[in-house]
Amino acid sequence: xxxxxxxxxxxxxxxxxxxxxxxxxxxxxxxxxxxxxxxxxxxxxxxxxxxxxxxxxxxxxxxxxxxxxxxxxxxxxxxxxxxxxxxxxxxxxxxxxxxxxxxxxxxxxxxxxxxxxxxxxxxxxxxxxxxxxxxxxxxxxxxxxxxxxxxxxxxxxxxxxxxxxxxxxxxxxxxxxxxxxxxxxxxxxxxxxxxxxxxxxxxxxxxxxxxxxxxxxxxxxxxxxxxxxxxxxxxxxxxxxxxxxxxxxxxxxxxxxxxxxxxxxxxxxxxxxxxxxxxxxxxxxxxxxxxxxxxxxxxxxxxxxxxxxxxxxxxxxxxxxxxxxxxxxxxxxxxxxxxxxxxxxxxxxxxxxxxxxxxxxxxxxxxxxxxxxxxxxxxxxxxxxxxxxxxxxxxxxxxxxxxxxxxxxxxxxxxxxxxxxxxxxxxxxxxxxxxxxxxxxxxxxxxxxxxxxxxxxxxxxxxxxxxxxxxxxxxxxxxxxxxxxxxxxxxxxxxxxxxxxxxxxxxxxxxxxxxxxxxxxxxxxxxxxxxxxxxxxxxxxxxxxxxxxxxxxxxxxxxxxxxxxxxxxxxxxxxxxxxxxxxxxxxxxxxxxxxxxxxxxxxxxxxxxxxxxxxxxxxxxxxxxxxxxxxxxxxxxxxxxxxxxxxxxxxxxxxxxxxxxxxxxxxxxxxxxxxxxxxxxxxxxxxxxxxxxxxxxxxxxxxxxxxxxxxxxxxxxxxxxxxxxxxxxxxxxxxxxxxx
Length: 740
What we know:
The protein is 49% helix and 9% strand. By secondary structure, the protein is an alpha/beta fold.
């Protein structure tokens, strides 16, 4: 055995020891058993009485065993912890009962309450199954109450996820800032609104969407206590935040002799909303503040001994030397160990992705300043931009292979199932690999669930799947019905939208969702006809009563129809641009523009037929957390701004765009209508089209008014998804855009 293999062996032994000793929940076997039983009971009701659960801490990590014989009515589940017991039941439902659990909803119609025979055991290939991006809270959970969290925690457990992030920290920071003498005005100017917490925490912005009320701070504190307790009771570990150096600008007045650095201006945010302070980690005050924060945080919420800190997330270090970055890393970790000797640092590896600042030499200095096995790195976008190869498995620090997949919580069907199937197994077999787990790290959820279920199953079994067979089974259990046409449709999607293998950024900024210009260049990595044929196959089967009234089938049909119409909008857009530039037929250009607007009206109506595509639900949930009228307006502004302008003047316009009923009709359509008016006017007057003037007009006439208004939208769907999808397919499938 060579030295490298010996080092890897010793590393694996050490890290498994750390996992078993440190990361395990402090909840006892009986507590985890009852918590798992509660999850199952919420899913199947009184039928849980026929399930016998046993939690046994002496079993291997992330292990379960299922047994059901024809001699008894009782299903036996034995597992190493509560979350593995939940995963066992989810596995049993899918493989033996043809049922389906997802964040889109559940399909349990195929489970009649009887338990089929089964004998199966599994130990996860992963030591850790991870979930969340530091942005996920802001894009998906900002407006959740305990009811939404309860459902999501159940899904987390049933998916077999063993590590995730604590959602809040502002309550403790509010106390710490006051301890240091920061005025309430300075604190108010620092905290962003709930829709923008993630970027305030990373030091990108300050104050945008605020102020933060005492009511919300207290609400978030109580909610976090419930979330952490619920997760821990299931044996799920929670990473808590640690200090990474970002502070309110008011600290410069309190400590005039300390050297603070303004963080760089992020995405052109104006000075009153950007550039909080960065306290150099080599300053003694850094340790003092960090220790005070983490002490208070762990006293309030307990600890699983793992802490996340990302000092340079989309923020560059101001010194590019190995010694400096080694000292930064040492200081950050010393805060953690000063409060918790068992501490492990959880680091997002996003700062290394496509960033020329971070040479391998600097990365190695930063990572190896922490003892091996005491830092856990999230290779955040392994499916597209893996860093484990470049860094030789992060220079020996354990890492988690993660699929990021989604930016901004945008919609649009895409994924890389075959690629993931191959690459994950390859990563585990690299010589000297320090891979310890698999994770999903989307910026936003509630889209493309098939991709996430695939990765979470791979997290428990690294072996290559027959993906075609897997996706057919997925379609059968998702709808509780076996249809060769629907299976075939999903195989076509596997060959098209879910077959991406490129390096291009897929950020969900599809043409009709973007601020209009003549410069967009729509592109696709797939043959559009496969998606249209898949939709046709869905519609051919939709007359079946089981599918016609199936919520998940309806949801997927709306999503698939939306994708087809999105593609048709691209074709129309390109025809409009070509016609405008040739200036040959204003009448036909006017026809194309009106056809484009008609398509958006139809799309808005389609999205309104299913509850998962309603702007109204999003806006009403934001207002539901407010304590008074002023806060209701503030929270609604947070919600509207995040999915449109994303900033005071459109700093990240359309980054978190949504294809929902309401926003299509009242935001995208008016923008394009104004754009087309300006195009046609420029031709009629024989003057050049002025993009700058249009952007000023659309901001003043459409975008900012939408951000500031308080129009209410439906929170319940209207119309029949299947009938309207069929109507739209017949109407738009053979769209004619040729000149008469």
